[in-house]
Amino acid sequence: MTALFALATALLWGLADFGGGLLTRRMPALTVVVASQTIAVVVLGAIVIATGAWSETGPELWYAVAAGVVGPVAMLSFYKALALGPMGVVSPLGSLGVVVPVSVGLLIGDRPGLLQFAGIGVAVVGIVLAGGPELRGAPVQRQAVLLTLVAAFGFGSVMALIAEASTTLTGLFLALFVQRVTNVVVGGGALYVSVKRGGRALPEGGEGMKVVRAALPALAFVGLADVAANGTYSIAAQNGPVTVAAVLANLYPVVTALAARGVLKERLRAVQAAGAGLALVGTVLLATG
User: Fold this and answer.
1) Which range has the top average pLDDT, 73-87, 134-148, 208-222, 258-272?
2) Gyration radius (Cα) of the chain, Å
3) Selection from 161, 186, 154 nearest residue 175 by Cα
4) Of residues 157 and 102, more confidently modeled
């Protein structure tokens, strides 16, 4: 069950990142974050009311609040790092966030077998290579590296926090709702500050709102896929070793690269293909270890 839900997480996160990347080509990244998460809040709010999840309120929801604060900070740091580039360095470094939940798993007593340890090592190398690291070319700005490491730590922290935010299915719905509300508050505040400083909230041109309305289905997919990924990861982490769940869930860069290949006809570089292959080998080792 752990492997199944963790791989579902990788699929959902990979597709959400791909969709979010396409949307940010048409509108400001902060707008994508706030709009997609607002849709998720509405859907989750309806689920919470329908399931009576309010009864699950407890101190563990502070983990969800913390995840909701850290998530937008990590995402904005990642977008800023991508803008500074080169993306071929930033993207793989962002995957290093897997170290946080793996370390937490080891601290709380996870003891993977020899095959699983080998699978973790192989899969992590595959994840990094799947991003297509640039080994030559322009030097990387120190600020880009620092921002990427902040983002990686943030992404990993969200995984660790959301796994602790609930112990039941209805509690998970409530935790995800609280997390998304916090996302919207933090992201909305950042968007407000950005606009005050001269930034844009809508796409350029006279039909900004029309572009946003036309993108609502895609925004809904990105927001709900991200929510579902957090949910499936929480289930995976609660039903098996966190170390295994975290590594399998972090295969999402492979999914994003394959989606770009299938939809945008982007050609995989040799290093990306090698990374995808290693990630697959690591997955098999983790699943059978």
Assistant:
1) 208-222
2) 18
3) 161
4) 157
Express each pLDDT in 10-51 by its tens digit. Answer: 899 888 888 887 888 888 888 888 999 999 999 999 999 999
What tokens does 202 get?
Answer: 């809508």
195, 201 in Cβ contact below 8 A? Answer: yes
- Identify the three-state secondary structure at position 22: helix
Mean pLDDT on 159-187: 92
Q: Write out the DSSP string of 119-180.
A: HHHHHHHHHHHHT----SSSPPPHHHHHHHHHHHHHHHHHHHHHTTS-SSHHHHHHHHHHHH
d(CA 161, CA 119): 24
- pTM (two decimals): 0.81
DSSP-derived secondary structure letter, 44: H
53-71 residues labelled b (16+ CB within 10 A) or e (exposed): beebeeeebebbbbbbbbb
